[in-house]
Input
Amino acid sequence: MKIAITGATGQLGRLVIEKLKAQVPADQIVGLVRTPAKATDLGVEVREADYNQSATLETALVGVNKLLLISSSEVGQRATQHRNVIEAAKKAGVQHIVYTSVLHADSSPLSLADEHRATEADVKASGVAYTLLRNGWYTENYTGSIHGAVAGGAFIGSAKDGRISSATRADFADAAVAVLTGEGHENKTYELAGDESYTLTELAAEISRQAGKDIPYKDLPVADYAAALTGFGIPEGFAHGLAGWDANAAEGALFDDSRQLSKLIGRPTTPLATAVAAALK
Output
């Protein structure tokens, strides 16, 4: 049995590999990366696999039984890149494709969802057994801004009072490992989100409690929030994306109370307070 993970040197990919090594022998794990020389610390077999180079993909997937296709980070190119991987997987005889999609991909207003919908359709059309892991928002998407918020005296955003059911990367990594090592997940779709939801006002209150100073949440118009992010050095296109996704959160796009994630991983998802404490260290 060979289990391969794309994007193996990414933040999620590394977590999945570390957790997989606790479940299966390391020689059954394959890390797929663009630059193998940068992945020598993974402790597993590493193979070159470029989303844009079909020849490398077909070679990399030889002998692989299960494939975790972690979505590419190149927004706008992902549908094509993922299709290349799926076609190569089918040619190589991969028996099960597990894909990290986005929460409620079939109905989500997030601009990110279009490419995920396209990939979900490609996975289903491939004829290969699949599992769709519709991952919600990473808690780290917000806790990564904590130090800046503490320094600046406010946590800013455009999510109004929208409730966000985020979970940590470690929670989502555990879900991927559960599917890759478990049984009965073929041709299923999981909506994965944190057990608890919160507004950004509540997040700011938790930051304030742990930081020992008042850090209010300041809700901004989308254009103003995007401009502020650009001012922090975030590329303009990505800044507008972040601000737009916050606006979608205001409409409930990042909320889910089905608790499918905690059921899948067999434990509660990481509490917000724990994630905030980790970010403040």
